[in-house]
Amino acid sequence: MVIRSRPQLRHPAQVVVVGFAGAIAVGTGLLMLPVAKAGSGGAGLLDALFTSVSAVCVTGLVVVDTATFWTPFGQVVILGLIQLGGLGIMTFASMLGLLISRRMGLRARLTAAAETKTPGLGDVRSVVLGVVKVSLLLEAITALALALRFGQGYGMSVPRALWQGVFHAVSAFNNAGFALYPDSLVGFVGDPWVCLPIAAAVVAGGLGFPVLFELRRRWRRPAAWSLHTKIVVWASGIFLLGGSAFVTAVEWANPATLGALDVPGKLLAGFFQGVMPRTAGFNSIDIGQMNPASWLGMDVLMFVGGASAGTAGGIKVTTFAVLFFVLYAEVRGEGAVNIFHRRLPGEVQRQALTVVLLSVAAVVGSTVAFMVFTDFDLDRTLFEVVSAFATVGLSTGITADLPGTERILLIALMFIGRLGPITVASALALRQRVRMYDLPEERPVIG
Fold first, then answer.
1. Distance CA 2, CA 57 (A)
2. Average pLDDT, stretch 119-128?
3. How far apart are CA 56 and CA 87, in angstroms?
4. pTM across the whole model
5. 389, 362 in Cβ contact below 8 A?
6. Up-side HSE of residue 361: CA atoms within 13 Å toward CB?
7. Pairing assessment for the beta strands 342-343 and 338-339 based on DSSP bridges
8. Does residue 113 surpass a pLDDT of 50?
9. How far lies 108's CA from each of 102, 118, 223, 323, in Å?
10. Rounded to 5 degrees, what angle do the CA atoms 222, 225, 226 make?
11. Distance (Å, rounded) from C-alpha 320 to C-alpha 260?
């Protein structure tokens, strides 16, 4: 008698892909229940699937209005999927970093431990508990601040203010961008007590658990930070300030966006909209009325995204920073790539290049497909594709008008964009082949 063993998932990336697919399937089933949809009957398969994928992949793109289409039960399901997706990706990415570090040699590990002083990341249990504790704490602080503002500033009852605070806090920290208002947060465009806590939660979630953990322990000693933390903090700061300044400058006189606001309102709205492409889908101004130049700039911000091991999407700021320093070293004619007095391994450079090129291929291919099968122009199509792939959730207003085939393409983009870069990166980092010989060297002509 032949006993067949069950198929095993040998690679960590396989586990997370199957796990996310299972969560999406369960979420779709729950959202199709009549109790989840307002009015009679249940939601259609495509609407439920799109919403479930958008929630689990913490994207925020919607084809139906979250506040009016779904019942409180449906909204709770969406909130649960957002929390599950955010915790899942932060836990997996953090554990992946731990696994990769354990693949290093003994001397390298001892050196890293001495430099970073992070023994708390030494086992799976501490990583999981750390992610959960940090997430729930920051979400609770944000929820309390928002609930107080909704209750005192807008006259909401205590239960409604708490629900509004909790929903938007979880959505913000997980960079999901789901809102309980048809126009997202346009009604709060001039309210810093709503916009700033949400922006702070988005930034915190986008930094990632390893960075938050290290900042909590050594925020007064930047010189002692690990290379990853230094890159994330500096690159995130540059993109946040640069993105906010860009949006504010381009939209300053646009009467449909910032033009109708006073100076403090313009600065607040410009900052808020500069933060959101990092990658949360909230908007306090009408994205569809923005200048095409703003869309293009936001395409870049969305494509880069936030930090690894965080809730943000995109190719990640660390990937962008690595390629920037590779370019900088090549222009200067240096043989090695150095970042913050550390030499960058060649395999890390190749991994970054691979992730970027595959991501560009996915965006370009999907944009061409949209252009062929729809009548939308390039500006709006590219914005929508990048927003889906980078799991941002911002939209120029065309998502709800897309036919079924294009919605399925967006579903695939959200899933690939959420899990693709990290799956490719982990596969490259954990798959090492030792060649016992070198081939003859020859240089092609470049440029």
1. 41
2. 56
3. 10
4. 0.86
5. yes
6. 9
7. antiparallel
8. no
9. 10, 14, 20, 23
10. 155
11. 35
Taking residues 29-34, report their average pLDDT.
Answer: 96
pLDDT at 156: 95
Longest Cα–Cα distance in the chain? 80
Q: Give burial (CB, 10 Å; 0-12/13-18/19+) of 78.
A: buried
**254 phi/psi in degrees, rounded to 5:** -75, 110
- Is the confidence at residue 229, as pLDDT, over 80? yes
Q: How far apart are CA 362 and CA 113, in angstroms?
A: 37
**Which residue in the block uniquely carries the two structure tokens 């702070």?**
200
Residue 278 CA from chain centroid, whole number: 7
At residue 165, the pLDDT reads: 97
Are residues 20 and 418 in contact, defined by beta-carbon separation less than 8 angstroms?
yes
276-323 pLDDT, tens digit per residue, is: 998 888 999 999 999 999 999 999 999 999 887 778 889 999 999 999
**pLDDT by residue (tens digit) across 390-414?**
999 999 989 888 888 889 999 999 9
Residues 406 and 230: their CA atoms lie apart, in Å, by 40
Quick one: CA dihedral 175, 176, 181, 184, positive or negative?
positive
Distance between CA 278 and CA 304 in Å, rounded?
Answer: 8
Does the pLDDT value for residue 72 go beyond 90? yes
CA distance 355 to 423: 10
Q: Percent of the chain having pLDDT more than 90? A: 56
Contacts of 39 (CB under 8 A, 6+ apart): none
Q: In this structure, which amino acid lies at residue 31?
A: L
| pLDDT confidence of residue 351 | 83
Q: Locate the domains of the chain by residue range.
A: 12-430
Rounded Cα distance between 96 and 429, Å, is: 10
H/E stretch holding 143: helix 124-154
Nearest to 312 by CA among 206, 176, 414: 206
pLDDT grade for 104, boundaries at 50, 70 and 90: very low
